[in-house]
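Bug report

Summary: structure tokens for Sulfotransferase differ between web form and batch submission.
Environment: batch mode, default settings.
Steps: 1) Submit the sequence below via batch. 2) Compare with the web form result.

Sequence submitted:
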Amino acid sequence: MSLRIERLRTRSQHYLTLKQWDAAAASYESLLAVEPDDVDALLGYAKAQSSRGRVRAAHAAALRAHALAPREPRQVLELAGRLRLLNESGLLVDLLRQSGIERHDDPDALLEQALSASTINAHEESLVLVDRVLELAPDLPEARYLRGNVMMFFGRMDEAEVELERAITLKPGYAQAHWVLSRLRRQTLERNHAQRIRARLAEVRPGGHGETYLSFALHNELHDLGQYADAWRALERGCAAKRGLAPHDRAVTARLFDRLKQLCTANFVNPGPAPEGSFVPIFVIGMHRSGTTLLERILGGHSQVADGGETYLFTGQMKIAADTHVSGVLDQRLLDRVSDVDYQAVGAGFLRASAWRARGHAYLTEKLPSNFLHAGFIAKALPQARFLHMRRDPRETCFSNLRTLFSDIASYSYDQLDMADYYRRYLDLMGHWHDVMPGRILDISYDALVEDAEAVARDVFAFCGLSFEPGTLDLNRNGAVSTASSAQVRGSISKRKVPDWQHYRRHLQPMLEALDDLV
């Protein structure tokens, strides 16, 4: 190694350590000009460019690093994190499968990658990694917690419960574990965790994540027990804590939705040539908690359909094309750049990045509900895509959102009036999509689906160009479900006799009045 190259390497790493991103990017460019196959340099360059907001350059460097097939554990772990941030889930899975990283002996590093695999719905890979972690550190509560989650996603609820209880034994204040445990099964008077959760709530710092998780956990348990007054108080406490952690601004939402409608005219969404791909994407869209998981389970039972779950792959391709980071699914930064986007490249990139999920099937579902925000861009980029829009009673949808603890993706869902305002804007935007691209979206009533699943399923499959298969209505089949409905979508298709919101009617008057004309 020449002295000049060693100096470039040292200088580049120095700038990176100091977070001098511009200087680091320039220095790594000089290094890569003479050492183009240096994996460490490519990873450093990708990090610097990503930190500068240059997503396209970061993406190209990460893809180049992946093509070099690194096997050194440190490089594999760094590259895996970079690929996850860039929504390159297929390449991440390939890296985890081919690198032999499961033979690594650092439990913390392996746990991080197991979590990465789980977040992209690669649960089999996640299970291999977390089992290796537990070989090295059997009493690591975070590993027990993750394994419990993976078992829940696979529908193995008894095993999930064992792992989560083990995590709580090892770490009694593990608020997230208490919360997941509260969702695993219906709680009964004879078998519940309400008193244990109350004891932990008495010890937590007000306004923090612990109070949030434990309050929602207590709400879930008391709701199952029919103790609705106490359940409401727990929900109010949890929502208040979450609002402090993830505040919502209705004005920002209003500007975003209005700008979307201004940009996405009928002329704008008119598609160009369809990019080549081996499968047809089916986008299942709507509000969270509207029945999208149930619909995807039915679709995924078809012999020609692979269920892809919820991903941010389309957002990821828009980020690359617009060369900007994006907060959530869509934000103003992205909208400011959409006129310069190459939509055929976005469509081709989505098909490439999603192909591993299709597993040779002719159709692939993508069921991130909030992709309804992207519907105009998806229609333009993927002329062959089908849109299935789930609609559910506004009161049921909004209350189900209110009592669900999301990450930071749904800040509107912790206040009754914020929730109602967002729902109205969503409904208005869906009307706009129907106006500017008539015939491309099939609306599906949740109530109709649970009342006569076969009739609705026949319409859905016909819209997608598929014949109906009776086995699609069997929800007990194997397969992972990693959404907020993971514990509810196995078994028979049925409707609750009394909608959950009715138990809390007197507390929900602000939201119900705001939705009254939509019912």
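Above is the batch result. After comparison, the two runs are identical; trailing whitespace caused the diff. The domain at 273-518 is CATH 3.40.50.300 (Rossmann fold). The mean pLDDT is 94.
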